[in-house]
């Protein structure tokens, strides 16, 4: 197999957070719009775009998705996969019809401008560690800062012109 040349177009859609039971099932955290949307994809990829996985739904709870993965047949195999991230190609995601909606991945690399529309940083990523979305920006001097991804801190996003406005809190 050769490495997928378009790994920059891979979007993370789920992560294995734990093994479940003795038959190789796993608990997943889904990053898709709805918990069950992860099963809409025929196959999921690893971060290189080479390895392919097929999931089968077992259960959906408010905290996690229980699934089996083709080829994973026991708990030891499932435990060895904890932390594995699953990806899909960007082109396999549904098209966004609403101009007010976007995929977080679309923000990466955008210019972060201040209220006067002067470039102050570049967007490095958008994350959620459980307490709400955070946007990471990198200033010209290399400093990284994570800010709440809220309407107050990020009042404007322009996907077409590839910039967003950051209203920096006074503590920075």
TrEMBL record:
Domain RimM N-terminal as annotated: residue spans: 12-90
Compartments reported by the entry: Cytoplasm
GO molecular function, one term: ribosome binding
Keyword Cell membrane: no
Cytoplasm recorded as keyword: yes
Ribosome maturation factor RimM PRC barrel domain mapped to chain residues: 105-170
Gene Ontology CC annotation, any one: cytoplasm
Keywords associated with the record: Chaperone, Cytoplasm, Ribosome biogenesis, rRNA processing
Pfam families according to UniProt: PRC_RimM, RimM
Broad class of the protein's primary localization: cytoplasm
UniProt-listed GO biological process terms: ribosomal small subunit biogenesis; rRNA processing
Function description: An accessory protein needed during the final step in the assembly of 30S ribosomal subunit, possibly for assembly of the head region. Essential for efficient processing of 16S rRNA. May be needed both before and after RbfA during the maturation of 16S rRNA. It has affinity for free ribosomal 30S subunits but not for 70S ribosomes.
NCBIfam families assigned: 16S_RimM
Family from the record: Belongs to the RimM family.
Entry remark concerning the domains of this protein: The PRC barrel domain binds ribosomal protein uS19.
Quaternary structure (record): Binds ribosomal protein uS19.
PANTHER family to which the protein is assigned, alphabetical: RIBOSOME MATURATION FACTOR RIMM (PTHR33692:SF1)
Protein name: Ribosome maturation factor RimM
Organism this protein belongs to: Candidatus Arcanibacter lacustris
Gene of this entry: rimM
